[in-house]
Amino acid sequence: MSWWRIWLCAAVMATCGCWRAPLVEDFGAVRGRPAINSLNGLRFHQEMWEAAGAKVLLPSKLSPRLETFDALVLVGRDYGPPGRDARRWLEQWLERRNGRTVVYFGRDFNAAIYYRQRTLDQVPAQLQGRAEEEIARRQIEEFNLRVSQLPENTFADWCYFDVNRIEHRYTRFSGPWAEDLADRTGYWPVRTALLPPADQWRDKTPSWITANSSPGPAGPSLPPSGGESTRRSVWSYGEYQTDEEWQEAFQNIPEHEILLQADDGTPLVYRIPVGPTEGSQILVVANGAPLLAGSLVDPLHRRVGERLVEACLPARRVGLLAYDRFGLLISNVPEQNQRGIGLEMLTVWPLSAVTMPAALLGILLCMALLPIFGRPRRLPRRTTSDFGLHVEALGQLLHRTRDRMFALRAIADYFTTVRGDPPPVWLVRELRTETPPQGSRPVDGSAEPAASPADSAASGSAGSKSAPESQIASIGQGATHGNAP
Length: 485
Hints:
36% of the residues lie in helices and 13% in strands. By secondary structure, the protein is of the alpha/beta class. The strands form four sheets. An eight-stranded mixed β-sheet has the order 1-14-2-3-13-12-11-7. The protein has a three-stranded antiparallel β-sheet with strand order 4-5-9, with no helix packed on it. A two-stranded antiparallel sheet has the order 6-8. A hairpin with a 5-residue loop joins β12 and β13.
């Protein structure tokens, strides 16, 4: 096997391993393979929209392109809500046309942990302890991340974040959406509660305001470029730096309607009407349990996810808008289509799943088929007077006869007739190996005994050679008078 085949086999083995792939836990993934493979991805939620007849797109910023959308799902990959400027932009977007919806869900839920807890009884007994340790480790990581980003209760227009709670696992519900959840298996874990906006939170002033120590500004704004106004809305505690700003945030408290709540009164899903005629709405969900892939394995969350989609219908164009700690980008220039135009579409999912490996394989083939290193040079041409060419031609003629014994006898005739020397030892050994023993009958049943190497040499000396052997001998004689060794 040539070396390039070995390299090709190694590349295939490296990309097509037979081991069990680890669980992918990329939170809030909406694009590419992570959205499909991640337990915290939204691919299944996207399929719910498509099953309802909606087209799902993936915008990356708030721009005039969203004027053609009917619903937006805000996918926060961190614990903070959208920044104040982003919330104002979304509220104005809702007011410009009736029938629009913004869905916002909390971050304090990890579907990968939920999935491991729900499948813990399927782990072998000898691995139960290790599985429980892995769950505890991930819970500690989530808790540390939440404390670093959301250390205390705060208010953000659409909801009040109550972080001073222990985790509850709710199985009993009430409200308009609770009528068909009684027989659904599963539970809804809630730690950080998203409470509806109310005047009662006015007196719960955050510590950074009472201590007169603001963490900093609400978020940076990018300078305009070429007439384009672009800014980034980042949430931080600096949204309300003084007590006056905190009190002002509660002046226009919107109405709300609780659609689903737990048995202890904790709101799980509620609706905030928006607009002069209240034709648009904001749906606030406690966390991503009804939207993320790992938790949709339970009928309970699957049904709540279906109710979320039904509450937004008849939406036809839906956007999954993901953002992280860098916030949401706001621009007055329409966003370009991310799927690309022309050959750029080969780099966009799902075509990229085929074109990228094909490009890598093509590079490997080029390296295997074109092993040229250094400057190219011209090789010297071989002339017809080169005796090596005659030897190669004679060998090819003998090979075409497909008769090993004939070829050995022809070489023996060359040594005895042309050079006048006895055949070399290796040739005599080969002839003895190929020649059948004395007295044996030929395969065709004739009575003529096989000739021995000595008889062959003698017959060659006496001149009783066959026509092909005579031609080979004449070629050898001509070579002797020429460049024979």
